Amino acid sequence: MTETTPRPRKSWGQNFLIDYNIQRKILDTAEIGPGERVVEIGPGRGILTTGLLERGAEVLAIEIDPLLVATLRQEIPSPHLHLIQEDALQYPYHQIPSPYKVVANLPYYLSTPLLFRLLEERQRISRMVLMLQKEVAERLVAPVGEKNYSVLSVMAQLYADIRIAFHVSRGCFRPRPDVDSSVISLTPLPHPRVSIRDEALFRRIVRGAFGHRRKRLANALADAGFPRDQVEAALRKIGLDPTRRGETLSLAEFALLADTLFD
Ligand code: SAM
């Protein structure tokens, strides 16, 4: 990047990767082949973008910062790069021909809402390789019973296989971030891991159960607007102890509860 490169904007999570060894490891994890379609969110100064192009990808890069977009247009004049200046949360992903991969070093402030948004598009995405806050990566892979087990764990594990590929230290970025990072590889499943009759109801139950982590399940769900008598009857029917806390339920138990309440 040149001397005219804009100063990093903290509000847009602009911590730029400067370590080419990490760039290579991200690209290796994504297993990019020639001609492959890749969506990059937040190309920034283009460290991943240039690597993706060198490996032969067709890249659609969505960047919110108009100054960075203008600089990238000048510095990477490739016919294989399609740059879009837009908020990645608002982008109409359904318009992208499938399948495609998502490769991104996400801005920290956006990682959780964007993950939920991308999970909605999972049927068209073959793999996501994402750099995230370490804590979010740990939530994504946390099994039931672990302290990081959360709504994000349940919803992501319902729809995808996820692994932490490697961790990245703060020194690999400029400016240096306040948190540690991890790269995850997320492969959407062809079907949800457990079958569920009504996915919207399942989501409401999971959110309700985690809404008051310290409360008993029946109380937490009653607080979330579910009729208490119906919740208690459903719990009795499937043999779940109503004094358990929501955060102790496995994916399969949440599914069973959702299907019973659906009835
Ligand atoms: N990919 C570059 C790298 O690895 O150095 C930049 C990563 S930086 C952590 C995050 C990038 O996302 C920044 O370029 C920032 O401007 C961009 N960004 C922030 N919010 C965004 C949004 N809502 N939509 C699209 N891009 C966004």
Automatic annotation (TrEMBL):
It catalyses: adenosine(1518)/adenosine(1519) in 16S rRNA + 4 S-adenosyl-L-methionine = N(6)-dimethyladenosine(1518)/N(6)-dimethyladenosine(1519) in 16S rRNA + 4 S-adenosyl-L-homocysteine + 4 H(+). Residues 22-190 form the Ribosomal RNA adenine methylase transferase N-terminal domain. S-adenosyl-L-methionine binds at N15, L17, G42, E63, D87, N105. GO terms for cellular component: cytosol. It is found in: Cytoplasm. The keyword Cytoplasm applies. GO terms for molecular function: 16S rRNA (adenine(1518)-N(6)/adenine(1519)-N(6))-dimethyltransferase activity; RNA binding. Keywords: Cytoplasm, Methyltransferase, RNA-binding, rRNA processing, S-adenosyl-L-methionine, Transferase. Its EC number is 2.1.1.182. Belongs to the class I-like SAM-binding methyltransferase superfamily. rRNA adenine N(6)-methyltransferase family. RsmA subfamily. HAMAP family: 16SrRNA_methyltr_A. This is Ribosomal RNA small subunit methyltransferase A.
